[in-house]
């Protein structure tokens, strides 16, 4: 068994990118072949308990305590620092160790491991709390809500599963504005869930398209032209990526979002502008930029809302129909063999937003339903999350 463990560890160390995810999938499949029906019941039936115990460990700062210490800690030491009774800490720690989240190294004595150090980081603790505060309560209501609705998914943003779970008619983002802790956790989740080396700018021929569209505009390329507008761009990370990768390209780079989001963001660099814009309202940028860009925006909304958002962008593109584009950066769910990372997010979209992750065929239908628009090309840049940059033009 030790030889097998060493082989797996060596292979895991060598696996990168797509092969790493494939190795994880193979490991899960291998475990499943070993399980009895009773094992399967234990794993699936008790899966929510790990979330609960992890929540307790975060509240009691167990992960932080272990990660900060150079040596192992005992139940007594952890209890003293947290203020909890020793017997309770002992039971929680035993449970965490059984899940492989901390390492038992002696009687009532524990040391940190990779999982411990992950949840010792504030960003990942916050991301986890987003699931606890904003997602899990809705998942618990999902079976009953679907049964009450004759097993039809709702597309009303005020009548989602989350609305039932939280007893509110507010759309999710409006609800977050009234609950700062939930909003902070959601922001931390968004900051880490697509933490990947994959970059859409490595897949999409951005500079080539700029050159082509500049020629169509009569080779006029100045700092007054609008190069790139990130619609619903939150903190402006994508605008900064564009500037960093193409510092020689001229033109304004603009990050748009609601006032409260932009006010919470760090000040932008000198070569990026912030602009307040509600994407359900007519676009302030009236002259056509070379690119409007939407990242993880449309998956939050049902089709009719997406049509409204895209229609406002189309109206601006009509000023330069041959030299302006919309780039949609989203998941494109595989028709077959979708990963659990993709299907998990799709369930979140259904419960929280009355929305969905879409297949590439569904994206084509959605874009085509907006008069005057067509989805012309698509570029895959991350396989496990099935991330695509879809190029939309005037039809």
UniProtKB/TrEMBL annotation:
Keyword NAD applies: no
GO MF, any single term: O-methyltransferase activity
Active site: 299 (proton acceptor)
A Pfam family that the UniProt record links to this protein: Methyltransf_2
Alphabetical list of Gene3D superfamilies matching this protein: Vaccinia Virus protein VP39 (3.40.50.150), Winged helix-like DNA-binding domain superfamily/Winged helix DNA-binding domain (1.10.10.10)
Top-level lineage group: Eukaryota
GO biological process: methylation
InterPro entries the UniProt entry points to: COMT-like, COMT_C, COMT_dimerisation, SAM-dependent_MTases_sf, WH-like_DNA-bd_sf, WH_DNA-bd_sf
PROSITE patterns: SAM_OMT_II
Every O-methyltransferase dimerisation domain range: 53-121
Residues covered by the O-methyltransferase C-terminal domain: 227-368
UniProtKB keywords: Methyltransferase, S-adenosyl-L-methionine, Transferase
S-adenosyl-L-methionine found in the keyword field: yes
UniProt-recorded name of the protein: O-methyltransferase domain-containing protein
Annotated source species: Cladophialophora chaetospira
